[in-house]
Amino acid sequence: MTAAAPSTTDDQRFADLHQVLEQGAMRKAARMLNALQPAEIAHLLESQPPKERELVWGLVDAEYDGEILTYLNDDVREQLISQMDAGELVAAVGGLDTDDLADLIQDLPVTITSEVLKSLDQQRRERLQTALAFPEDSAGGLMNTDTVTVRPEVTLDVVMRYLRRLKDGLPDITDNLIVVNREGYYLGVLYLTDLLTHDPEETVAEAMTLAVQAIPATWGAREVATRFEQHDLVTAPVVDENGQLLGRITVDDVMDVIREEAEHQFLGQAGLSETEDMFAPVLLSARRRALWLGVNLLTAFLAAWVIGRFEDTIQQVVALAVLMPVVASMGGIAGTQTLTLAIRGLAIGQLSSKNARWLLWKELAVAAINSVVWAVVVAAVAAYWFGDPQIALVIGVAITINLLAAALAGALLPMALERFGIDPALAGGVILTTVTDVVGFVAFLGLATLFLV
Questions:
Q1: What does the pLDDT look like over 59-99, one tens digit per residue?
Q2: CB 141 within 8 A of CB 253
Q3: What angle do CA 48, 52, 55 make, to 5 degrees?
């Protein structure tokens, strides 16, 4: 889970809390703080510099610690966990739902993990091991193993009496009961609305629906989010490769997937991680960002090297130095538009090898139209500025070439990077910039060498 941004009303409450903290009224601050929802407290913690964060964390009631930790990003969670002793951590995470515990236990020290496992009963330990058997970004990693199942042959009246006995044991966000046979294989779901409105003497088999397809545990998180979106699901059963029920996924977990994906796409374009703490130590942040700065420096040197190959041409026609950034900039913008569209298509499952060729031709056609339009505009400006129609022709052709190359790179790069196991959101922008700079400079300066010198 991740903490959502607060609303305007929440902003006012946070401002009031900050004011109370500044005044040193710790008891009042503690009351105000613990009246917030765990996700709101997590957002408040992420919004504080380290020292203030420690102060706020110390005011939180211990009973909320575990749930709050599940909403924090990885960096902040790691910082707070390092400040807690073994007893506090075991007590904090012991009462969590299985899916939340599975996410959190991987960030705990090994000694604490063993203590947590010892504190669980046999059933919870087995459920936790089931959840941990799958990658975090898979359906199996997202699912909660706490489910309510019924058999198809029992009557609805029996089901109603069974639910009354459960009382508070009914899992959160329960909109249906999962129907399984005696061997635990998934058959369908019984919606609570059908349970309440059908004749109590009917059997589950008569009232259940077969329309809800189970999600394989091996599906990726993106596929799960797409299924929820397309079918307007609130919950969905998860099965193994044989169709045996393993657990269920709820819409709140899917919302976390969508939010994290959006943050990843947004921050990835700047070479940042969505798990990074905004108030992380200076040296840690500097070290993390140094890698992409270094990569960018190498690509900048490559572009500079290309320019250096045409040093004599630039010295003879000074106007070229003035106009070079125009060519590179136009290609960069056009390429970024196509790249962003392609990355989004991959993220939501709309782009694949089956339709990539169609997208490529479409983007090349768009680039061809725009290149002609803007080549004419730039050529006219250059001709008026420098009074040289040859320079105007050269820059017009160069822009056309670079926009077409940018569209080609923007459409192909995401799929190529994903095939090699490289995140397109992180690496796509850097590579695209290199392509558009190099192609733009070679086209512009190369044509100028041929026709102007």
A1: 888 888 888 888 888 888 888 888 888 788 888 877 787 77
A2: no
A3: 125
SS3 58: helix
Side-by-side strand order, sheet with 215-216: 215-216, 235-239, 245-250
Q: Is the confidence at residue 183, as pLDDT, over 80?
A: yes
Q: Please tell me the distance from the alpha carbon of residue 35 to that of residue 41, in angstroms, as a whole number.
A: 9
Q: Which helix (H) or strand (E) holds 80?
A: helix 74-82
What is the spatial distance between Cα 314 and Cα 294, in angstroms, rounded to a whole number? 28
* CA-based nearest residue to 42, from 9, 14, 8, 82: 14
Contact by Cβ (8 Å): 222, 261 = yes
Comparison of pLDDT for 252 and 348, the residue scoring more: 252
In whole angstroms, what is the distance from residue 282 CA to residue 279 CA?
Answer: 8
Q: 392, 380, 399, 396: which is closest to 440 by C-alpha?
A: 399
* Residue 326: count of CB within 10 angstroms of its CB: 18
Amino acid, res. 138? S
53 within 8 A of 76, measured Cβ to Cβ:
yes
Task: Summarize the confidence of residues 233-259 as an average pLDDT.
Answer: 91
Asked if 108 and 89 touch (Cβ cutoff 8 Å), the reply is yes
Cα–Cα distance, 235 to 212 (Å, whole number): 10
d(CA 108, CA 78): 8
